[in-house]
Specification:
- The chain has 564 residues and is of the alpha+beta class.
- Helices cover 35% and strands 25% of the residues.
- It contains 18 helices and 23 strands.
- The protein is globular.
Length: 564
């Protein structure tokens, strides 16, 4: 492994610490009794405190120094005086350990008393400190100039998502998104629990992928020698529990769909599904709008949220529009009673990409998605979907060509889906068989299996039930004004990391200058790099070896071109 100059220096310091008898990774606990936030909120001059965190800045000033510690709640300034922490003749703890062997990013624990500096900053006067963990890589800390402008920030999205642990340290505001995510889950859980519904767990590894139309991830169970599928939805298992006698069950489930990735889709995502006996989709609409109003207040303290250029209000009640009326409003086309061939021609006439694998449900879904969905900004229930689109949903009580289903649209995206659940086992079997035929025609998202055990469960009888599913990742996107799902997942799925060449710090500096310019004169690059002759020669030789720079002659001028 090729190490940068700073990494080499830090490893040398690690060896020095151990030679001095100082364990850089001590095992025993450090008795923290407060946090930076608590210090500032409950400040009392002279109060004794013990706290710990990362060293994020240092201002060494001879016999006394200032530093900033960052813990889980924020930052606090500390003041370290040589004679305070080294009251005897031996001043090594300050002169050698603190001034020379502590680096930015290291974890230290401090004991001391609270005081206010001459400029009014609440700080800790350190009476003793201890190294708790030595960092071997320097943090990519942003810098601020005299005018308050920040540069060299850790802002590249791919690096931030791939190294979330660094992102959280150097961009502490990112943490607030995940604090709000937890608040959302807690608010929803409390809402359900207060109504007496039970949180349950269902299998992630399933012998038949069901409950939704999606491509599954496939694995193999060695002992049983059978294929298993990662859960695409937990619906059919939750409804089995309604059959078994529970009146209301819910689950926050990790689901997995072997599909594309974009700003609103991750192959692993979190959904909440709840099923309540003796209810229908009309009841569920009111339940949903009250739930989301409650959650918005819990997360942001208001029902209003900003998402991009839109102001969204989650205060109940929400508008209700049938799918037929929505398509008619935005396309002028009435889907009522239309055959598959008529829908196919209509969609093609609207410029929508269609193919022969698509049945009626898929064609209607494409028309709505392309021409209607993006128009619904404020929370709106789209209701009464055609029967071909909803194989697990009860037929509409007034029109057997439709189903008692709604989806909740916000800012042109679906965040919730709900049914009056189909509990007729014969009808359900026919719907499964229709899905199987679509799969055989080439529709990769249609159900490829019939869950005969679920049909057997329905034959034992399931009471009238309404179910609701909410995409938790997408909902928190709206509540935190994040247009990308990667921003609300700690560790989003990423392509395999490309392993570039390991560069020294000098090579990185020269490469960044060349990359920014694209092409420039060799002499100009050397001036900008401001390296000694020996370091310049070594950096250029290393970059040429890695194929990152090409030097060519134009007239009498040597030109450097970045090739990374």
């Amino acid at each position: 492994m090729q190490l940068s100059e700073q990494e080499i220096i830090r490893r040398e310091k690690l060896d020095t610490l151990r030679n001095l008898g100082i364990e850089p990774y001590p095992a025993n606990l450090f008795p923290v009794d407060t946090t930076s936030k608590q210090v500032k909120e409950d400040f009392s001059e002279g109060k004794q405190v013990v706290l710990a965190g990362r060293v994020m800045s240092m201002r060494i000033q001879g016999k006394a120094s200032f530093a900033e510690l960052q813990d889980s709640e924020g930052r606090i300034q500390i003041y370290v005086n040589r004679d305070e922490i080294c009251p005897g003749e031996d001043k090594a703890k300050y002169n050698d350990l603190f001034k020379k062997l502590i680096d930015l990013g290291d974890f230290i624990g401090v004991e001391g008393k609270l005081f206010t500096t001459q400029v009014g900053e609440k700080s800790v006067w350190v009476t003793d400190f201890k190294l708790l963990s030595k960092t071997l890589r320097p943090l990519p800390l942003p810098k601020t100039d005299a005018d308050g402008n920040t540069f060299d920030g850790f802002t590249d999205p791919e690096l931030r998502y791939r190294q979330r642990y660094v992102d959280l340290v150097v961009n502490p505001q990112v943490k607030e998104v995940f604090v709000k995510r937890t608040k959302l889950f807690n608010a929803m859980r409390n809402f359900f629990n207060d109504k007496g519904y039970f949180e349950v767990e269902t299998p992630i590894l399933q012998s038949i992928p069901g409950g939704a139309s999606a491509r599954p991830f496939i694995t193999h169970h060695n002992s049983l020698d059978i294929p298993l599928y990662m859960r695409i939805a937990n619906e059919l298992y939750l409804k089995r529990l309604i059959v078994g006698g529970f009146d209301g069950v819910y689950e926050f489930s990790k689901n997995f769909r072997n599909e594309g990735m974009d700003r609103t889709h991750n192959p692993e995502f979190t959904a909440m599904e709840i099923y309540v006996a003796y209810k229908d989709y009309n009841w569920m609409m009111e339940f949903t709008e009250n739930l989301l109003e409650h959650c918005a207040l819990a997360v942001n303290g208001t029902t209003e949220a900003t998402f991009g250029e839109h102001k969204v209000n989650f205060k109940a009640p929400y508008a209700r529009v049938t799918m037929t009326d929505a398509i008619k409003q935005f396309t002028g086309f009435d889907i009522t009673g239309k055959t598959e061939a008529e829908l196919f021609e209509a969609a093609r006439g609207m410029g929508i990409a269609v193919d022969e694998t698509m049945g009626k449900g898929k064609l209607i879904d494409e028309i709505f998605g392309e021409k209607c969905e993006g128009n619904f900004i404020q929370p709106t229930f789209i209701t009464d979907y055609p029967i071909e689109m909803s194989p697990l949903c009860k037929k509409h009580r007034e029109n057997p060509e439709l189903t008692e289903r709604f989806e909740l649209m916000v800012c042109g995206k679906e965040i919730a889906n709900a049914y009056s659940e189909l509990n007729d086992p014969i009808d359900q079997r026919e719907r499964f068989e229709a899905q199987l035929k679509l799969s055989e025609r080439g529709d990769v998202e249609a159900a490829q299996f019939i869950d005969f055990d679920f049909l057997r469960a329905l034959e034992y009888g399931m009471p009238p039930t309404s179910g609701l599913g909410i995409g938790m990742d997408r909902l928190i996107m709206f509540l935190t004004n994040n247009p990308s799902i990667q921003e609300v997942l700690f560790f989003p799925q990423m392509r395999p990391e490309k392993k570039g060449p390991e560069l020294t710090e000098d090579e990185k500096a020269v490469a960044e200058l060349a990359k920014a310019a694209g092409q420039l004169a060799l002499d100009a690059l050397k001036t900008q790099a401001n390296l000694s002759g020996k370091k310049w020669d070594a950096a250029m030789k290393g970059l040429a070896k890695h194929g990152l720079l090409k030097v060519s002659l134009e007239g009498e001028t040597k030109i450097v071109e970045y090739k990374g």
